[in-house]
């Protein structure tokens, strides 16, 4: 196997080998980087080492970069400790809030001339070292939250690490980052969680009707409550601001829906729904483009190899898959594969799949 040369010149120490830390280790090891693993749990280190994410720490280690991948409530203290322990290293972290951590490091007397916060917007519903993936960051945004205390030349090592892992480098201030993730990550977590909570006491008959829409809205509601208490607490003010505006939108929608035949109510409802269309159209699609795709639903027998056969035949037809969602039909051995393709390809793909015996549901 060919190893692509790294941009880094020295070892990387990863503190905390959960999902992100292990994935960083796996990605850097694929480029031949010497990765040093550290964690409060020796078992986690052993698992990550066995998976090939790096090696255990030794007394003579002199890392070029230290990446702190620990829970937000201890991130600042670990950063200060690592800055002191490795006076030649640049230290970064991957916590999902930046300004409170920077302020805490400064307050603790940490050497911020060697610290810059960062945040990869990548993850999975499952955590721990066994969930680590070398390709977790490929094509994903990774924010570097620069500040006046660190030079561009010093911070460049963190840029090199991000590019080594295949992520897309995004530069922001800590304040810009925190307000941005409040809108696109933290508030959606709250909304998803509260919607899912409505299901806890719902009748089985209602839950059994759940389709892809409900799954989409509640997918992230299974995230770790303990971690999210820390994240939301650290970024409370920006999240509250977004949620207050969302509450005003919701109140306005409720008022219109409470009397849908009143003058102006239907127009108000329609404008709110259209506003949602406008907003979702701005979410970057494949390759970062604001491009909407057409979709068709194909019925797939719930047997081994059928989904793979569908995707293979799409390749033979010459149509590129832009996105895929899979839903099982309740009480039947059938899956519904919703395939997103470029609009100009949907008619040709539909006809070609039908000719090959596939059942098109929509």
From TrEMBL:
The keyword Amino-acid biosynthesis applies. Keywords: Amino-acid biosynthesis, Aromatic amino acid biosynthesis, Oxidoreductase. Transmembrane segments: none annotated. One of its GO terms (molecular function) is prephenate dehydrogenase (NAD+) activity. InterPro entries: 6-PGluconate_DH-like_C_sf, ACT-like_dom_sf, NAD(P)-bd_dom_sf, PDH_C, PDH_N, Preph/Arog_dehydrog, Prephen_DH. Pfam families: PDH_C, PDH_N. Pathway: Amino-acid biosynthesis. Its EC number is 1.3.1.12. Residues 10-291 form the Prephenate/arogenate dehydrogenase domain. The keyword Oxidoreductase applies. PANTHER family: PREPHENATE DEHYDROGENASE, PREPHENATE DEHYDROGENASE [NADP(+)]. Belongs to the prephenate/arogenate dehydrogenase family. This is Prephenate dehydrogenase. It comes from Herbiconiux aconitum. The lineage of its organism: Bacteria, Bacillati, Actinomycetota, Actinomycetes, Micrococcales.
């Amino acid at each position: 196997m060919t190893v692509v040369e790294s941009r880094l010149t020295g070892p990387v120490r990863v503190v905390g080998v959960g999902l992100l830390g292990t994935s960083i280790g796996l990605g850097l090891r694929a480029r031949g980087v010497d990765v040093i693993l550290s964690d409060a749990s020796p078992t986690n280190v052993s698992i990550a080492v066995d998976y090939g994410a790096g090696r255990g720490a030794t007394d003579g280690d002199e890392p070029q970069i230290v990446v702190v991948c620990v829970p937000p409530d201890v991130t600042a203290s670990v950063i200060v400790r690592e800055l002191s322990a490795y006076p030649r290293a640049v230290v970064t972290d991957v916590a999902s809030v930046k300004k409170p951590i920077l302020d805490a490091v400064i307050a603790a007397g940490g050497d911020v001339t060697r610290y810059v916060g960062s945040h990869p917007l990548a993850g999975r519903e499952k955590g721990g070292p066994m969930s680590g993936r070398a390709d977790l960051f490929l094509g994903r945004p990774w924010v570097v939250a620069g500040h006046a205390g660190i030079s561009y030349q010093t911070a460049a090592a963190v840029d090199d690490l991000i590019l080594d892992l295949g992520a897309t480098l995004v530069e922001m201030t800590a304040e810009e980052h925190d307000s941005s993730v409040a809108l696109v990550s933290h508030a959606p977590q709250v909304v998803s969680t509260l919607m899912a909570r409505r299901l806890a006491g719902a009748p089985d008959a209602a839950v059994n009707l759940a389709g892809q829409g409900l799954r989409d809205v509640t997918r992230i509601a299974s995230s770790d409550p303990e971690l999210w208490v820390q994240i939301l607490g650290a970024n409370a003010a920006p999240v509250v601001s977004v949620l207050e505006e969302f509450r005003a939108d919701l109140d306005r929608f409720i008022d219109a829906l409470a009397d849908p035949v009143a003058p102006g109510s239907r127009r108000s409802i329609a404008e709110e729904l259209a506003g949602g269309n406008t907003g979702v159209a701005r979410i970057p699609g494949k390759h970062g483009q604001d491009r909407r795709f057409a979709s068709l639903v194909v019925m797939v027998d719930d047997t081994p190899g059928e989904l793979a056969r569908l995707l293979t035949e799409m390749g033979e037809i010459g149509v590129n898959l832009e996105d895929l969602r899979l839903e099982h039909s309740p009480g039947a051995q059938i899956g519904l594969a919703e395939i997103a393709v470029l609009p100009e390809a949907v008619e040709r793909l539909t006809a070609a799949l039908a000719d090959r015996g596939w059942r098109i549901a929509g």
